[in-house]
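Re: the request from the purification team.
They wanted to know what the chain is likely to look like in 3D before they choose a buffer screen. I agreed to run a prediction and write the result into the notebook, where they can find it.
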Amino acid sequence: MVEVRGLSVAYGEQAPPVLDGVDLTVHRGDMTCIVGGSGCGKSTLLKTVIGLVSPRSGDLGLLGEPLHELAEAERDALLKRVGVMFQYGAMLGSLTVAENVGLPLQMHTDLEPALIDDIVDTRLRLVGLAGNGGKLPSELSGGMRKRAALARAMALEPEVLFCDEPGAGLDPVTAAGIDRLLLSLNRGQGTTVVVVTHELLSIERLDGQLVMLDGGRVVFDGTVRAAREEQRDDLRRFFNPSAA
């Protein structure tokens, strides 16, 4: 689903690289958590994989295609197979929740309005927001906005779902609910899920492949259990910050 080799990214020709020689593989059906401290390059890696940032060098494949080498029309077609849940939801404040969720369907399909409404209702039920479609994003709690953003990301039934800090800013109970939703999409529907996070509880709950970045490089790639068993200072500090 994602194949990255030797990826380097910098914001400016003379700027030092934010990512420096990153290798990453995500297979179909994987649950992958990309972790690391602030400024390590997690969000930059996500933005590069979904085409928002261009790499300085290296190879990047998304769903078997060289994303950054495609013509605009081909890239647009490829990205319709991808869902993105942004950190702060990125909901359009002037649209209702239902209109936000239905927007990808209106923009990228020829479905009849009545069918779009049915799909939107299904997505909202999936994330526990049935009956809230008529509200504006400003009328929702933080956790409800995250759920609405997840519903919109799933509107086109993507093959792979990218989530940037889905639990950030949420109380522990609400964050656990978001994690359960992601697990149900991954294990119940077979959606490949890639999560950028620094939340230790989420990492434990999701219990997928762990990719740790530090200084723009991958310093660990394996299971959560293997990471905890590693006798390395950087991993010990990450999983036991109070003992650092």
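For the purification team: The mean pLDDT is 91.
Please add any questions underneath this entry.
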